[in-house]
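Milestone 3.1: sequence recovery, worked example.
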């Protein structure tokens, strides 16, 4: 599919992309770029990449350049990469916020390099390349956010790539994507962290945690994710996150009022609606049952 792929950032997502590319024979050569030399050595040992190099050495001749670094440094890496890009190189990212990134990328890049915003809706609570999985994207939704300036051949190549990973492809406008992930990804993380902090603030936190069962663990699982990464995500998508917080607060106040007023009907109605929507949620992770 590709002759040469360069992955900047070989952590969980970049590493999983590298594993899928190598084991599914989707690229002849995969080059890893990462400021953490220890992480690069692990990537080499795990077969995630064929070799490791600097941007200057890795990028010339690349068909595909994947920006898989934390969202807070993605634009900086892209800017550093520009002098070494080969005409025709397709560039994509894996970040969960698109608006400003795409705007700046289209301003910075030469016309003969093609940027397509990308976001594989997959992940784990672990970080680093040692958590990488070839099947991380099997059954997942892979979102692309083309604009009027996006090269058609570039988006088509990336769609083929995503399908080869076992993913379902969805195209969204950048702003539409950012609003959607604020509600179904960023808000849940904020709520999980807040729920844990609510318990942590209690004088009997230790005793409460001893009682914590599956409900608390399931509701707060994502609070165990990388804090610095989520700081950057929440601040980068600040406007949409704040809008989703306001929408959640309204729903919470509706339930609160039903309890205050001892309104059985409204309370049950809200709980039934939530249950029905939750039961309709499609399972899009093929590997979940195999994770211990």
């Amino acid at each position: 599919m590709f002759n040469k792929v360069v992955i900047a950032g070989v952590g969980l997502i970049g590493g999983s992309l590298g594993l899928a590319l190598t084991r599914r024979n989707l690229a002849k050569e995969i080059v890893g770029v990462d400021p953490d030399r220890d992480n690069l050595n692990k990537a080499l040992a795990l077969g995630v990449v064929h070799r490791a190099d600097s941007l200057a050495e890795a990028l010339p001749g690349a068909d595909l350049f994947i920006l898989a670094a934390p969202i807070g440094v993605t634009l900086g890496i892209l800017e550093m990469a520009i002098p070494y890009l080969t005409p025709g190189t397709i560039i994509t990212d894996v970040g969960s916020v698109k608006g400003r990134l795409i705007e700046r990328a289209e301003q910075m890049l030469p016309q003969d390099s093609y940027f397509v915003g990308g976001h594989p809706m997959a992940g784990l609570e672990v970080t680093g390349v040692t958590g990488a999985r070839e099947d991380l994207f099997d059954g997942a939704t892979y979102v692309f956010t083309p604009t009027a300036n996006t090269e058609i051949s570039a988006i088509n190549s990336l769609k083929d790539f995503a399908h080869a990973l076992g993913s379902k492809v969805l195209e969204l406008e950048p702003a539409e994507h950012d609003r959607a992930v604020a509600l179904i990804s960023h808000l849940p993380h904020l709520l999980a962290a807040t729920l844990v902090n609510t318990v942590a603030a209690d004088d009997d936190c230790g005793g409460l945690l001893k009682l914590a069962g599956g409900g608390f663990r399931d509701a707060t699982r994502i609070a165990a994710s990388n804090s610095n990464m989520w700081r950057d995500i929440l601040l980068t998508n600040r406007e949409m996150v704040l809008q989703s917080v306001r929408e959640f607060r309204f729903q919470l106040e509706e339930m609160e009022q039903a309890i205050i007023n001892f309104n059985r009907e409204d309370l049950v109605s809200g709980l039934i609606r939530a249950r029905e929507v939750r039961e309709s949620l499609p399972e899009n992770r093929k590997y979940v049952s195999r994770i211990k």
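Residues 287-292 have pLDDT under 50 and may be disordered. Residues 174-200 form the longest helix (27 residues).
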